[in-house]
Amino acid sequence: MQHKTLNDLLIEANNEVRSLDYVETLNKIEHDKCVIIDVREESELIQHGYIKNAINIPRGLIEFKLAPNSANNPIIIDDNTNILVYCAGGYRSALAAKALQDLGFKNVFNIGGFADWANSGGEIVK
Q: What are the Cα distances from residue 48, in Å, to 22, 38, 100, 113?
């Protein structure tokens, strides 16, 4: 059995999960039911801030916290909810978004990295 590399996993995730740019993300937030998930570690949020209204679920906990019908689920997500996932550079968010799709969530999008959002003028909380 051939093992996958991190690069293989990222290519697979990016092929399966739709990415949104800044303008597409703003449009989703303004017009659709959305949940924004920051998969960075808490220390990164403290140091750099986070996207307004985002909830923090570190990458290592995403499958535990957001499994459909999980008692630990901090938010209610239905089939019409768009799940917008980001991290520092777009890599962890790609893997997290693919994991959420694999769990059965239908409207999952990778919105990339926090720096791109902030540099584009996106609203952040410090």
A: 18, 12, 25, 12
User: Which CATH superfamily hosts domain 6-125?
Assistant: Rhodanese-like domain (3.40.250.10)
Residue in the structure block whose two tokens are 């307004």: 52
Cβ-based burial of 44 (10 A; exposed 0-12, middle 13-18, buried ≥19): middle
**More confident of the two residues 38 and 76:** 38
CA atoms of 47 and 109, how far apart (whole Å): 25
Q: pTM of the predicted model, to two decimals?
A: 0.93
CB 34 within 8 A of CB 25: no
* Neighbour count for residue 85 (Cβ, 10 Å): 29
